[in-house]
Design a protein that fits this description.
Blueprint lengths: L2 E6 L7 H15 L3 E6 L13 H5 L8 H9 L3 E7 L7 H9 L12 E7 L9 H11 L6 E8 L12 H12 L3
Parallel strand pairs: 1-2, 1-3, 3-4, 4-5
Helix pairs in contact: 1-6
């Protein structure tokens, strides 16, 4: 049994990505994993200021919710990032969190398996490519981690559309069941 952490980065009410993140969590629990979901909604996460104090201290000098989320990610075996696609890229909230998790670099982190679930109004196959590249750049800094899989759910134009899409609900559930 793996410890799975799901980071849901949408801030919108009735978010399609949050609806599908819940299905991923359900599938992962069915597969026997211990699952924790962290929503960035309501969290205070300041921008990284690039001081690099975290590299000496092992933690960020800023006092906000990023520190607790970073510790949660550090102790996970598997991390699933969930993001809506904005302007063909991951959400700003997720990018800000990735920057703030810089204290993980050089630490004795546990995570090995990284997954990405993306949602968007656009349904073109290449829509999530830049988000995948951004996550890939983060993963490249952690030599023991690798991108194990991704799921893209496009054509979700309005809040809550995912709740009415049986195909995507099933795909997200099965995505969760397949996590390592």
């Amino acid at each position: 049994m793996s410890k799975v952490v799901i980071i849901s980065s949408s801030l919108r009410a009735k978010s399609n990505s949050e609806i599908l993140a819940a299905k991923v969590a359900e599938g992962a629990k069915t597969a026997g994993h211990e699952v924790e979901t962290v929503s960035l909604k309501g969290k205070k996460i300041a921008y990284c200021v690039g001081c690099l104090a975290c590299q000496k201290l092992g933690k960020c000098v800023q006092k906000d919710d990023a520190a607790e989320i970073t510790e949660t990610v550090k102790s996970a075996d598997t991390v699933v990032f969930v993001t809506p696609i904005y302007y063909y890229e991951m959400s700003g909230q997720l990018k800000t969190l990735l920057d703030r998790m810089n204290p993980l670099y050089g630490s004795d982190y546990s995570f090995r398996n990284i997954y990405l679930l993306t949602t968007a109004a656009d349904d073109a196959e290449e829509t999530p490519d830049r988000a995948l590249g951004g996550i890939g750049g983060w993963i490249d800094c952690f030599e023991r981690a690798e991108l194990k899989g991704s799921l893209f759910c496009g054509g979700l134009e309005n809040p809550g559309d995912a709740q009415k899409n049986a195909e995507y609900l099933e795909a997200a559930y099965n995505f969760g069941k397949s996590l390592e």
